[in-house]
Amino acid sequence: MKLPTRELIHRLSSISNGPCISIYMPTHRTHPDNGQDTIRFQNLLKELEASLSQKYSVGEVRSYLQPFENIKEDRDVWNQNLDGLAVFYSKDVFELVRIPVIVTELVVVSDSFHTKPLRKYLQTEDRFQILGLSLHEMRLYEGNRHSVSEIELGNDVPKTIQDALGDELTEKHTTVASYGGVGGGSGNMHHGHGSKKDETDIDAERFFRVVADTVYEKFSKESELPLILAALPEHHNLFNKVNKNPFLLESGIALNPDALSADKLATMAWEVMEPEYNQRLKSWSEKAGQAIADQKGSDLISDIVAAATEGRVETLLIESDLILPGKIVDEVSGRVETGELSNPETDDLLDDIGEIVEKMGGRVLVIPADQMKFESGCVALYRY
């Protein structure tokens, strides 16, 4: 199974060969709570069957349901979940996606996939990454205010000082103890060669420089997420000396993350991130209000649809969890029609608008309901 990525959303958004079936549900990471997940999935399949039956024959409905019935019996699916699960199916696509946040139960049958919950995860302003760093290895995590999950690093990412420096290590025969253990020890005890603190410091600085450059090029540059450093206090100073990553937050966690549980790491990271998050929301609210006042933005759905199709929307703010059932009738005029989400001809207007904005190179951000100051549930900031 996959995690949400921009590439996945773009691929799903390119499919228009209906029916496109999207299912979302909350799941559980551990036993015994995950035992109820298959029951909830079965109930969603009944909802899916009812929706399909409005448009398709009995034989077609049975054919469309079969892949989902197979999922229900697959133990590997239900034993490896995070907090949410999404399933996408059409004639051209079959994807299972694990989501590291709780999602609302939802079944949508339409001419396109419903991707807003995936975009919500990728576009909410509370997301961040954590760089866990000691003198001999690095780890990378991604999370939000609720939880963090470790990122699987590819073979091209140097995870240890040996990976990063290889034969260039100043002291090739130095053991791991020279660089601090997993618990974060900072001693410089060498085995067989005596104390060589200067050489160890040189290696540490070179290792941190490789880590800083790699994290920026392979992760921060693409995600543009705030980066929080978790390391011993003395390592913060050395890392900041070599770091050129503009996404690194000034504040960090002054502990080795290996000594922290996932829940504790998430809690401490959110304490660092929350002021940044609140400032971002305030800034976007002010920008949106000013744009409307200057007639360089709008919170009217028809205006936003027309501007989005013309490629004039630079940034679109959407209220989290709000669904506006309907469809776009005329992209030029922005005319829309409301409907029932259970109808295969109906999708979520906010989801459709978000897809258009992204296809035209705009940015979409999902804002908490209590921070959305506009009654329509969305507001667009125009390029011109």
Task: Please characterize this protein's 3D structure.
The chain is α+β, with helices and mostly antiparallel strands and 384 residues long. It has 3 domains: 6-121, 2-Layer Sandwich (Translation, Eukaryotic Peptide Chain Release Factor Subunit 1, Chain A); 128-277, Nucleotidyltransferase, domain 5 (2-Layer Sandwich), CATH 3.30.420; 295-382, 60s Ribosomal Protein L30, Chain: A. Helices cover 38% and strands 19% of the residues. It contains 11 helices and 15 strands. It has helices at residues 6-13, 37-52, 58-72, 75-78, 116-123, 161-165, 197-223, 233-242, 262-293, 301-309, 349-359, and strands spanning 20-26, 84-89, 94-99, 106-110, 128-133, 138-143, 148-150, 227-230, 297-298, 313-319, 325-330, 335-338, 347-348, 363-367, 378-382. The strands form 4 sheets. The protein has a 4-stranded antiparallel beta sheet with strand order 3-2-1-4, with helices on both faces. It has a 4-stranded mixed beta sheet with strand order 7-6-5-8. A hairpin with a 4-residue loop joins β2 (84-89) and β3 (94-99). α2 runs antiparallel to α3 (58-72). It is globular, with a radius of gyration of 24 Å.
